[in-house]
Each structure stands twice: as C-alpha cells, then as structure tokens.
Write a sequence for this structure.
C-alpha cells in the first residue's frame, strides 16, 4: 500500500518530467506559398522581400521570372522538394496536355521549398516547379 507522501512524490515527479518534455517541443512548421508572396515581383529581376522570421528579412532572388535562391540573414537555408502541395493558394498551377482534339489539365506535381529554422519555428516557402531554377541537389521533404 502506498503512502500519501510517496504518491504525491510520484505525481510531482511525473509532472516535472512532462513539463520538461513540453518545453523542448518545437512549434509546428509554417508552410507559406512563395508564389503568392512574390506576386508580380516574380516578373522583376532582383532580390525581393517576402517575409520576416524574427528580426531576419526573408529575401527571394529572382532572375528571368524564376526564383534562383532565398536567404534570411544568418539563418541557414535548406532546399527541399515534394510531390505534395504544401501551401494552399487561391490559384491552381495547371498545365495543358493535348491528346488529339482533347486537352486535359494536369496539376503540377513537383513543389520546391526553401526551409529556414530559427531554433524555435521552421518556415517553408513553397513554389511550383515552373517558378524555380533547379540547379543544385534538393532533398526530399520529410514532415517534422
């Protein structure tokens, strides 16, 4: 049979362990639609601000209508890709495929993202394949 003090000690220990685990958990990832954030700036060459992460300004570098890179001050960027649409938008990216007299609409099936981790939150800026210059190695996106 447990004593009252022993039971209270066990409850206090369990609460302390649970609170410590909760303090190390990261917030959920933020998935942002880079195409919509750039808007008409996608047609203008140069570096364009698309957001802020803490005190860091997030910049997208555009050349000839395509994103060639992103930066956010001192934060490290990781290039990721996926076949799933990770950021919602009001417009859908379609391409027309012809077969005889019929044309079918296909949804773009590759999305490229630039990932920034500020130590607390993770931010992903997603673009359809048609918006990005793919020259380097991109790693497969894995949900965290």
């Amino acid at each position: 049979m447990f004593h009252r003090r022993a039971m209270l000690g066990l409850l206090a220990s369990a609460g302390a362990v649970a609170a410590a685990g909760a303090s190390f958990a990261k917030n959920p990832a933020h998935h942002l639609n880079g195409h919509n954030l750039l808007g008409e700036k996608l047609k203008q060459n140069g570096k364009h601000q698309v957001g802020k992460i803490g005190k860091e300004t997030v910049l997208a570098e555009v050349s000839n209508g395509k994103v060639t890179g992103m930066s956010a001050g001192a934060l490290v960027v990781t290039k990721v890709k996926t076949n799933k649409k990770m950021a919602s938008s009001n417009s859908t990216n379609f391409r027309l495929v012809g077969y005889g007299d019929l044309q079918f609409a296909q949804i773009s099936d590759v999305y490229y993202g630039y990932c920034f981790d500020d130590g607390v939150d993770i931010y992903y800026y997603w673009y359809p394949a048609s918006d990005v210059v793919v020259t380097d190695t991109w790693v497969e996106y894995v949900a965290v």
Observations:
- Helices lie at 4-24, 34-38.
